[in-house]
Amino acid sequence: RLASSAAALAVGVALVAAAATARGTGFSWRGACGSPARDAGASTVPRHAQWPFTLAAPRQQRRDGLLPMGAVRRRHRPPTGAAVMDAVVVAEGNSKLPPPLSAAAEIRATLISRLSDLDRGARATPEEAEEIERLAERLEEEAAKEGRWRPALPRDLQDLDGRWRLVYTSAFAGRGGIGGRKRGISLDTPLLQVGEIHQVYHTRDNRVDTSVTIRPPTWLRNTGLLDWLPVIEGDADTTITLTQHFEIARFDTLRYTWVDGTIRSRAIALFGALRFPLALLGMGTDAFTESPLADTHTLRYCDGDLRFGVGARDGELRVYVHT
After folding, report:
1. CA distance linking residue 170 with residue 124, whole number of Å
2. How does pLDDT run across 256-287, given as a tens digit for each residue?
3. Residue 318, C-beta contacts closer than 8 angstroms, at least 6 positions apart
4. DSSP letter string, 164-184
């Protein structure tokens, strides 16, 4: 893009210089932009006052027809709103994100702002949970209106690749309707604290790993006792990773089946990760067909940095950001 811009600028400067040399008079950029070009004798506006570019007067030109250094100068004038919009659209033309100043970008920013203080939904009041649902529905409507940001599988499957952090789930908020019928667990109890939850997609292998960090309760960490344990050395976090296999169920829906899980912590680091099966009796499950051991998730929105969808079994709304 920089090379193309530099080439276009060089061509433009060459055309200006050629026009000024051929006519032997000042050059009006207004005429070149489509406005009626006026001769030097007919113009009532001095050439040095024309916007946005002006050329030196003929008496300043050298005998060889070239302009002296500094003859082309930019007049400082605030850009108009249309010019700002054009610049923004050009700058974001190749991005998957909604264009700045668009309705989708405004709704998206509002949604992210509302989620920042809800601790993945655990602190959401019923009114806040309803607002999150409305914002998600409005953003989904804008995606449908623009014909973008609504994943179409398998074409957009690779957009899910990478690590995603859970920023909201209606299961933690305990809402009904689109927000889910199940009430989530408390994230900070006297026995443990639920840390960050991540999903890592490996679309080439049709696999997704969901990791949950479990920490000792806040009151126990504040005592400082964990720092004195020789094995833990202050790091008592335990990471539980649950692996699922998925297949495409519909153009916007994935079906997941459990495979296995692992537990990692410093307490058992000498023995390596503890692996355990999740499939019934250790047997593989079929992700191509619906079953009690399978779950489906419909993707409602994904722009590469933000995505959300709804679980088919319990209607749980889940919002993730790419990390």
Report:
1. 9
2. 999 999 999 988 877 778 998 887 655 556 67
3. 166, 168, 169, 170, 297, 308, 309, 310, 311
4. EEEEEEHHHHT--GGG-SSPP
Give per-residue pLDDT as tens, 14-52: 554 444 444 444 444 334 444 444 344 444 444 444 434
Using CA atoms, how far apart are residues 263 and 266, in angstroms rounded to an integer? 10
> How far is it, in rounded angstroms, from Cα 137 to Cα 205?
31
Q: Which two tokens stand for residue 156?
A: 């957009």
Angle, CA of 315, 321 and 134, to the nearest 5°: 45
Backbone angles phi, psi at 139, to 5 degrees: -65, -35
Q: Which of 121, 146, 128, 183 is nearest to 308 (CA)?
A: 121
CA 224 to chain centre: 39
Task: State how far the Cα of 228 lies from the Cα of 4, in Å rounded to an integer.
Answer: 62
Residue 206's alpha-carbon distances to 124, 170, 244, 254, in angstroms, are 33, 26, 9, 10
Angle at 82 between CA 77 and CA 83, to 5 degrees: 50
DSSP-based three-state secondary structure for 243: strand
Q: What amino acid occupies position 318?
A: R
3-state secondary structure of 283: coil
Query: Using one digit for the tens of pLDDT, what is the confidence trace for 106-154?
Result: 999 999 999 999 999 998 988 999 999 999 999 999 999 999 999 999 9
CA distances for 57 relative to 22, 61, 132, 187, angstroms:
14, 7, 62, 74
pTM here?
A: 0.66
